[in-house]
Design brief:
Chain lengths: ~260, ~260, ~260, ~260, ~260
């Protein structure tokens, strides 16, 4: 569970509903306004994107709630362990540990190394896989980004529609006039909420999660290549620790030595 | 038929007309406002672009409604089939299948290979053709993009004109004042509608369709080059499957093996 | 005569004056407002740019009204003709046709080839000349772009000045108040008109015309280099036709063959 | 102590509180408005960024208050001194001065040189360290940048909420109406203050401080490489002075000679 | 004296004060508003930039008023003359003319050539000097750019403060209300003036002047390198004329020949 995402939702919702609206949500609920802003954004997505891209959107949302699944420190420890096995008993000995590896990307890479695949081909296959993953993440994020920017646009459109209706109605009753204006502004409020809280920050988090996943996958790729090359476990460790922040580096043979 | 385009138009129109206007279109129809916004955008296009670019605009609109004509999986299957024929009976045997190929780009490429053209020249001719297609798509899209951004600009200009007329008229009748303001805002509404629904998303869809066409053409180019080089059909299949998403790869010799 | 430019001006002016103002120009003419917006833009240009750049502005305006002077198809036909003369009678035979060439860029290039200048030097001289032409076009366009963006800026400044004057005057006469506001908005109207119709689209057209001239000059450069190298006229034609759209390519030896 | 930061805070606060508000802060303090703008920004940061990035924000603020710790002129003098020792007594003689060097980056670099490490490896290690430092600075700055841009966004959201509440309340008491509008505007004021004074300029200062630290570190790197190569102290001085402004160069052997 | 700068200031001031304000400056002078906008911009600069950068700002303003000091045509004539001396009497003969050269950059370059310095080192030293000059110009310009963009930001902040104060005051006296609004708008006016007339165009002029100085310095560098290489004066002239506009090239041996 990504604590930041949960905390952000709770704090943001409290700020808007508790602090801003003093828990009186009534004046801010208007069904046609919800319809025009969210329906308009949906229309935008369907019109502008390929169906597959729109369909991939829900799949990329849960990742923003999950804690980063792979700890780079643990991955490096695992890879150093594997390199010790490979040095001691030969690379074929890794066959036995393959099944215990939960990550399919690392498992496939090590399988290729055990199979004696040409190192350049291993690198090629793993990098192509990473490119594919990144392209799919990018597609989904660009769709969410279109939702994020569509919100304020449709919010403004709804407000213009509301203002025209209100002004056409005449000015006999000033209370009706201000009430009409309040309703017209609700679509602007929804659009602003989409950009600031409901969609916008999730788009940024997707980019963060993608970055984390890619840097773990880069460590895996470098580790597999290093094991395949028959590097000394200490060298493997040194090569991989470069990808860690200095504060995370205090473990392993390297720091004991 | 591109289902997303149709669904987007239906949903978007329903949101604006049904939800936003409650089916009362009357107050939102104003002929001079239509004239100034759409006429202004047309003037912009004629003034700013070459005549040929303006004339190419209608031709690029239908593509946003058509389903993507080429399924990359089918294309790959076809290309693998051709490579089998070429391996078995020689590349000249492809002469017989050329006429059944509907796509002129692929047909021309294979014709060149059958004619024994130098591989570098084949690649050059096919890439130049792709560049030309992409340049024409880009020209048309940039013209539509100018329409998209001209809408809000001319909408704002029309509103300023309306406000000046209204304010000059004096404030004796407050109802006339608000009605004048409503009319002034209608051009802003049209401009906003052009950007959010009537033109904007179609520009994005053109880019998506261009991307799809180019990636299919890239597969065709790689396939022709691979057939020309006399590659083993399994290698042809492997080389081309890289361009598919992992979920689409489950077919052919490669996965049976 | 560039038909698009004329049509754009006529339609745009009709939309603003006929449709928007219903032919009542009176309320939109305000001499001080004209002074502040156009004078302010002039002040900006003088302050921000080199004098030579400001002086070059009027020279670059007529090009937006002229039809593109060189038809690439005609240029290619001419160049193929020249290459035939050069193949048949030797490159010195081109001396006789030089005087009939209206374009100084092409004439100078062929003169260099006739003089037996080193091909690399010919290319260098012609490319430097193209760079110089493009730099001058770019300078003039950037000055017009500053006019385009200065319009709305000074329009807003004028409106702020007008609002302050109006508000300081007090609210005794509401009619005076709205009339003052109308006048204040006129500078916004002028600024918007500069960006949307009077200057903006001309900036875009300058870029289009520059692009057309440069692509014709590129054809001339490639043609001179090909003639100098003694290429077969059919090869010259093939090399140059790459620069045409496919629909324009249906002429000459190449398509007859 | 960075005098500019202190002076900027004092002058900016005086301009806002003393000049703008005439020392009457009362009307500008509204607890719910503070809650929505600052709470909303916090929610944004938690939702959009990795927890580690959010946690690194406070650590990067003090740097904007501290005077630049390293004077490049002093660093160069020190490095020239070290090169003299190395030339006279051999590079191992630097072992004795290592402990007096306060900067860990320079100390580690010289230690590597004294240990006889391969020059390419020294450069690699020092550059990786610089990349790591810069990446951490960049992470922290991008988080502060999100705070900077979140301010006006949440300020606008708060104002829309306030306007809706005010307009729903009706217009019976015009004083209540304007008072409600004043409160609604306070979130816009806070957002604007975040961007212009409270957060924005600190983001720029962080970039300046990072630039200064990196250019000092570059001098250290070049100095260590030059000492390692056994360069003549005068050459070391010449190589490093290139990184100084001309007015700072008037010292040392080079200018005496 | 740069005529454009003077003319721009005169015309711009006349447009604002004469045309816009009808010479009635009174309503536009408000001391607290001046304080908040200009003080706020100063606070921004001090907070965001290094002290040295802020201090360098006044030094870069006079350059926008001065006529470009070096005429490239004159510089080229001088360099051709020097190359004649060097060809006729040897490069050492240039020692005598060095003192008459007013420009320190050119003098230093020729001194290096006379001293028999290695050509690569001459080029390196002169280019480093040019980089340093350009970096200092860039620093100063970026500080002025921050002033330019800070103006409208602080103008808007001042207006929000003014509006809140005005609205809190209640609506008993409508004249007081509009007068308060006028004062609130004055900071927007100052901010707009900073961007459009008082600071903005000077930033652009600084870039123009930097461009002119750098292109003259490039001619000097190429000339020194050509003289050092012992080029024929006619070649020197040809090499340098490339940097002139075609209309400026009608002088010297080259056009006489």
């Amino acid at each position: 569970m990504d604590f930041g995402t949960i905390a952000g939702i709770v704090i943001g919702t409290f700020c808007v509903v508790g602090v801003g609206m003093s828990w009186q949500i009534g004046p801010f609920i208007d069904v046609p306004s919800i319809g025009i802003v969210f329906g308009g954004c949906l229309a935008n997505l369907l019109l502008a994107l390929a169906m597959d891209t729109v369909k991939s959107m829900p799949k990329s949302l849960p990742v923003t709630f999950k804690a980063s699944k792979d700890d780079p420190v643990e991955i490096i420890k695992k890879l150093v362990e594997f390199s010790e096995v490979a040095r001691r008993d030969g690379i074929l000995a890794l066959e036995n540990v393959l099944e215990q590896i939960p990550d399919p990307f690392l498992r496939q890479g090590l399988q290729l190394a055990v199979d004696g695949t040409d190192p350049e081909l291993i690198q090629d296959i793993m990098e192509t896989e990473m490119d594919n993953i990144e392209a799919r993440h990018g597609d989904a994020k660009s769709a969410w980004d279109m939702f994020r920017s569509g919100g304020p646009t449709w919010g403004a459109l709804g407000t213009v529609i509301g203002l025209i209706q209100m002004l056409k109605g005449g000015v006999e009753d000033p209370n009706a006039l201000t009430a009409g204006m309040a309703v017209a502004l609700i679509t602007t409020f929804y659009g602003s909420l989409i950009a600031s809280l409901m969609v916008g920050p999730f788009c940024d988090k997707m980019a963060v999660k993608n970055g984390e996943e890619m840097s773990v996958k880069t460590i895996m790729l470098k580790g597999v290549m290093s094991i395949q090359a028959g590097d000394n476990p200490r060298i493997v460790e040194q090569k991989l620790k470069i990808f860690l922040a200095p504060t995370q580096r205090g473990f392993g043979k390297d720091s004991e030595g």
